[in-house]
Amino acid sequence: MEFSALPDLASRAFGGGVVYCNDEFFAAADHLVLPDPPGHAPKTFDHKGQVYDGWETRRRRTPGHDFAVIRLGAPGVIHGVDIDTAFFTGNYPPFASVEAVELPGYPGPDELADAEWVEILPRSELKGDGRNLYPVETRRRFTHVRLNILPDGGVARLRVHGEVVPDPDLLPKVFDVAAAEYGATVVDCSNMFYGNPARMLMPGLARNMGDGWETSRRRDDGNDWVLVRLAAPAVLKFADLDTSHFKGNAPGWATLTGFDDQGASFELLPRTALRPDTPHRFRLDDGPEVTQVRLDVFPDGGMARLRLLGRADRAYLRARLGR
Fold first, then answer.
1. Residues 156 and 176 in one domain
2. 126 and 272 both lie in a single domain
3. Other CB atoms within 10 A of residue 286 CB
């Protein structure tokens, strides 16, 4: 579904985590938010049975159901959920539902238990060993979700796809307005044969060459590019172009072009040489406020991370938050 292309707000990559679960006898609920796809090694047993890369509860012999509460690493508006039961065949839950809540600060299990939860996915049927994608219509900002499995069983991953809506009161004056964790997104790109450009906007350092944007080899006179919508309109101060891990396939040069909300363009970084396997930082000349930035690489190649540090429009961020 289309919503699955949006960021996973619950991902451990954004700092998401399992706050509480009522049972994790066979496999820990922490697996639910891991960013990597679930794996499986058949006939791998420990003292509790087959080892699963997911959350698995014991067979329930009493009324009720099992549940796990997840803190979203990036609070925001949820557009859909993916309840992935990969490799759970005879032990997956037949049904599930999802609730959500917005709470300030860092509530503990007792505060979460007393909160007024909103049902964003009613009791819905699940299939085993596969993805179960359901759209969410409630367009509110949430900070936590609760996955209910009915009555018990195993779920490999829970993906909570949506739009990031950060709290501007928790952001410094200058921050990375190209960061996915603050709401920046990729609008378009010329090529993503080896790697999706959205990876450039993820937190932290790239783990390897596969954790970045990489294009196929160009055989024409053109060049590759990616267009990023910033988390908020901003006046940019610095740009980080990180080619770490890209050694024989880094771009030779790059430029940055900004666009305002009227579509006017401004040169932010002229054509500049890049080095392989190198984090580059460039000071940007004072310019106008921009809403989108286009990174052009010449002629092609890979980029591990793109960071654009600037002063964001606080009124825009507060309006998104509803303040």
1. no
2. no
3. 7
